[in-house]
Amino acid sequence: MTAYQQFDSQRAADVALTGVRVGADALLCAEGKALPAIDESLDFATALLCSEAVGAMQYANDTTLEYLKTHKQFGAPIGSFQALQHRMVEMVISMEQARSMSYLACSKVDGEPDAGERARCVSAAMIKVADAARLVSHETVQLHGGIGMTDALKASHTFRRLTLIAQQHGDADFHLARFAALGRGV
Q1: Which residue has the higher pLDDT, 146 or 175?
Q2: Which of 132, 148, 179, 184 could be 123's S-S partner, Cβ–Cβ 3.0 to 4.6 Å?
Q3: What per-residue string of b and e applies to 2-31 under the rule 16 or more CB within 10 Å gives b?
């Protein structure tokens, strides 16, 4: 096992198996049935990632709003500037859309009998979550100014985590292609 630290400071490892022998009795599913089981597991994991991203975006929005209310420039809280209010509203709207899509994905992995419909909904959620994660994380850093990328603020850790989540289990381009391929003949 070779351990390493990811971009977002999470721990990971590469595991190499050598000299392993597996008998037919060790199969987890019937021969030829592994791909649907793997797809279902990945859809479940992707729905969980969407939920984690929504939580991270909520944290980023909360801390950014607090910063806008307390940090002053020209004798006034920077949150009193209309342009920054608009940017904060964009962040909240994007996060709430991602939250709704995350709820949909979770409901589908929890009980949708049609694998194609489950996959479409999970991919649709990941597309929206990846877009929202990018917007929220970038705006958080921008609105905090230079300190937004320092390790002194948890916002920088949130930025890195959201960036990695948007790439795990397929980025937005992968899920767009998957969504299109699973289309209903539209």
Answers
A1: 175
A2: 179
A3: eeeeeeeeeeeeeeeeeeeeeeeeeeeeee
The verdict on residue 21 lying in a domain is no
Spatial distance between the Cα atoms of 184 and 106, rounded to a whole number of angstroms: 21
Residue 29 maps to a domain:
no
Mean pLDDT value across residues 33-57 = 94
User: Is residue 4 in some structural domain?
Assistant: no
Q: How far from 28 is each of 22, 34, 39, 109, CA to CA, in Å? A: 11, 8, 14, 20
pLDDT of residue 6: 83
Report the percent of the chain where pLDDT is more than 90. Answer: 65
How many domains does the chain divide into?
1
In a domain, 19, yes or no: no
Quick one: pLDDT at residue 53?
Answer: 97
* Mean pLDDT estimate for the chain: 90
Whether the pTM exceeds 0.70: the reply is: yes
CA 104/CA 180 separation, integer angstroms: 18
Residue 78: how many CB atoms within 10 A of its CB? 18
> What domain range is 151 assigned to?
34-181
The CATH number linked to 173 is 1.20.140.10
